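Purpose: get a first structural picture of the assembly so the mutagenesis plan has something to point at.
Setup: two entries, given in the order below. No constraints added.
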Amino acid sequence: MDFIIQNVLNALQWGSFYALIALGYTLVYGVLRLINFAHGDIFMVGAYISFFLAGFLIGPLVGLSPVMAFIVIVPLTMVLTSLVGVTLERVAYRPLRRKGAHRLYVVITALMCGLILEYSNLAVLGASRLKFPELVEKQIWNIGGITLTNLKVMVIVAAILVFLFLQWVVTRTRVGMAMRAISYDKFAIPLMGIPVDNIIVVTFILGSGFAGLAGLLFAMSYPVLEPFMGMLIGWKAFIAAVVGGIGDIKGAFVGGFLLGFIEVGVVSVFPSTYRDLFAFTILLLILWMKPTGLFGMPQSTKI
Amino acid sequence: MKKYSLNILLVVFAIGLLFAAHFRIIDSYIQIVFMTIGINIMMSTSLNLVNGNMGEFTCGHAAFMCIGAYISSILSVFCFGSKFGDPLLPAASVLIVFPIIVLIGGAVAAVSSLLVSVPSFKTRDDYLAIISIAVNYMIISAIENMDFIGGSRGFQGMKDTVWAMIDIFDGPWMLFWVINFTIFTVWVIRRFISSTYGKGVNAICQDEVAAEIMSVNTNKIKIINFMVAAGLAGCAGGLYSHIIGYVNPQSFNILKSTEALVMVYLGGMGSLSGAVISAIIFTGLLEVLRSQAIIDGLLSPVTMMFPDWEPSAGVIKWVMIPLLLVIVMQFRPEGIMGNRELGDVFPKLKKFYRFK
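Result (structure tokens, whole complex):
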């Protein structure tokens, strides 16, 4: 029993990372119909930004206490990472969108931007792995044989809060209404006086900001940074978002946790090399049964 | 004359290349570059069949290459290698058996494409992209878990087959096979696209529902199209494994698929000549930027400012190529050729050749 609960907790933690990244994918996709393949790398950039901020704030120049530094780093990382995301949108995606390029060319551009981020990081910082400083003192609680760390709780709570916040933004605010409107009909919306470009920028700010948060939390939980850390987790989070039904906030959240549960479940029973095989087979079967994901709506085809 | 001009040109080029390689006018590095170009042409034209002509978005093309590579290398080790016991076939038969082995690898890859094509009946664009990525991960992961073919350590021993060929006649055999298979691939795709099935493929790209109403059997055409594309990619994989002499599941990961995707979209969706041209340009760029001297020259202003920074060509290459592609996309958002062929872009060329 302890074993199961312990694994459920681990799965919740992994699922939280997937969910945090998948939420960003799904936000951008929902508005633009664009698979932002650079999103996993924005997560990586977020982790690195938080690393440098931590080094700067704890270091002798500023000399904050680690907890204070953490409180400052969270918003700063989110802001800086969202700046990276918005820059990508302005420099790479928006000109293509203006020219009316085919959707898939924008996707390829996104893939290329991801590669640029990865390899320029590798070129500038080198291949050595960086060790993230310990910001929040690790507390281990032992409840009836189950070990629980404060970081784990923080990650899970953060994922749930972000989900609730995004759900609120999308369903209850004017910006969210505009987002849903753009995804519903992107030709009529500019005629209604809705500033499409601003809404898209807001979308990128939200998505990249939470990817930055995920990067910070990931770096705190697994304190080794490398330039390719975002690649695999990004692809997997994208798959999670699609399995949930891409373009749907709830779907991304559920899909992320589902992927986390499948992976941890497989690893706890089989050797860990079988993780990808089983996880992706299960996801393939889910998509086979429900071709538009768990919560996705089938797109109506106009004749 | 017009009818055969392209064929004559190709044959002359191939024979010239083979002679140059045989008499050591071009060294083995240049030969490898030519072979890589051939394999990349096979990959990009075959992916173009799915992503360009049919308008689906699959990004797991390397999975089929992986299957083709593994199947044909296992077969070739069984037939001519000594890894699994004595060779099954006499070494003299290698010249007939080798293309069959590569084709078998392609056939198995074609069958495995059912993993993508059957879900594609119901699933469209982005969901299909996921399915193909998932298939790519699944196949790599499955091979990594098969210990009898090396698992994640990779598999080798295919060089025995190449040496058996060299024993018969000392020549650039792999270059010969790559040229043959590349021409075969382009020919098959061209014939396929201009056949009735190919018209169906284009119809699905335009509008799937309308195509179905016009009595196009969309499911059948999807299966066939995926099979042709995956089979040719499998052949490319078989050749690749024999050139390198070593296969590793991780060399067919999502990055390899991305390369194929880039070549298709750089060339222009649905343009066969575009796919060929972009494969040549892309491979050429990869090889040119591999040289440390060129990278150092390009980055000399930056390294003057930061003397401690020592960029390595292998890394900078992967910054420059995507950057270049992003810039190309900004100026030609439809790729080099758009969806037109060479003859449509330069109408005067049509006087000199006919390509069917």
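The mean pLDDT of chain A is 85.
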